Each structure stands twice: as C-alpha cells, then as structure tokens.
Amino acid sequence: MFGRRRHTTQSVSVETDISGPLRYLESLGANRDKAMRRILSGIGTAAKNQVRKAYKSHGLSKGTGELYKSITRRVIRSGKAVIVEAKARSKEGKVFYGYAIAKGARITAKEGRCLTFQIDGKWVRVHSVQLPERDFVAKPVKDYLGSTAFKTKLEELVQKELDRVEKEVRK
User: Fold this and answer.
1) What are the sequence ranges of the domains in the chain?
2) Which end of the chain is more exposed for a tag (fewer CB within 10 A), N or C?
3) pLDDT digits (tens, 9 = 90+) for 35-89
4) What percent of the chain has pLDDT over 70?
5) 77 three-class SS
6) 115-119 and 71-75: which strand pairing?
7) What ranges in 4-89 are assigned the alpha helix state H?
C-alpha cells in the first residue's frame, strides 16, 4: 500500500537543451559531464537570483527571513538538470513551509485549540486559516527561462567553457 506523499518543498527542475554546445565542447576535448554540470550550475544560480528578485512581488514581505534564505539551487546527481527550491523549516526543524506558501494550504489548530496571530496590530484567534497560493518559485524561473537574459547567460556560460578548453589545449 502506498502512503500519501507529503510535499515539503517548493521546487522547480530546470532543464534545457544544451546538447549542441556540449557536443562542440566535447569535440574540442572538454569533459562533457563536467562542462554540463558547470553550465547548469550557472543557469541555476541565475534562476535562483530571479526568484529572490521577484520574492516581494509575490506578497512575501521579509526578504531576510528563513523562507528567503532557503531559496537554493542544486545540480542533480545525474548532472542533467538543476533544481531551484525553497525549503524553509520551522525553528524546531520539523515543519517545512515553503511548499504550503507556494501552493496554498489550510492550516488547522490541533486538538480543537485556536491559532493565534497578529494582523495589523490586532490579535486574532481562529480555528483554521487558508493560505493563498503564492507561486514565488516556479513562475519567476519559468519567466527567466523564456527571457533573452537566459539566452545571454547560456551563451556566456558556453563561452566560459570554450575558454577553459582552449586554455587546457595550450598547456
């Protein structure tokens, strides 16, 4: 029997076709896997920066909080994609809330208790609250991948790899 999968992070897998430039780099003597990882790492860093730039425009106010700090990028083991994600944890480290904020969620108090929080300086007590969906990771990444800035960055990263190969050949 399969259990219900619990989502803990908001993440986007960034995949792009760089097979043409990689074939060319490989024909010049570059290590294909290393070149691909470096290019994807650069793309991931640029995409992560776009998520951070767009953070406040998605209704998230604290650009220094745990959620903002948890926005990261990582190249997957196979080296074929990079993942941009936000996986903020509660102070106890038990609850991940990046996904709940990105996809929206209903938060209900445990055992009939109330949720207590402040809104505009007034304390409010409710049994449950619905968080609105705020697509603060996927949308900025998708927008970036469709932009000319992405194409420019990709060309820049491929050129960097070309320079690296040329330097190795000269040695």
Assistant:
1) 10-104+131-170
2) N
3) 888 988 999 999 999 999 888 888 777 666 788 888 889 888 877 788 888 877 6
4) 83
5) coil
6) unpaired
7) 19-27, 32-54, 66-69
Contact 14, 147 (CB under 8 A): no
Write out pLDDT tens, residues 120-135.
Answer: 899 999 999 898 888 8
Q: How far apart are CA 167 and CA 25, in angstroms?
A: 13
Tokens read off for 128: 């449950």
Q: Which two tokens stand for residue 56?
A: 């406040």
Q: End-to-end CA distance of the chain, in Å?
A: 59
- Residue 85: beta bridge partners? 11, 72
Residue 54 phi/psi, 5° resolution?
-85, 0
CB 12, CB 50: distance < 8 Å: no
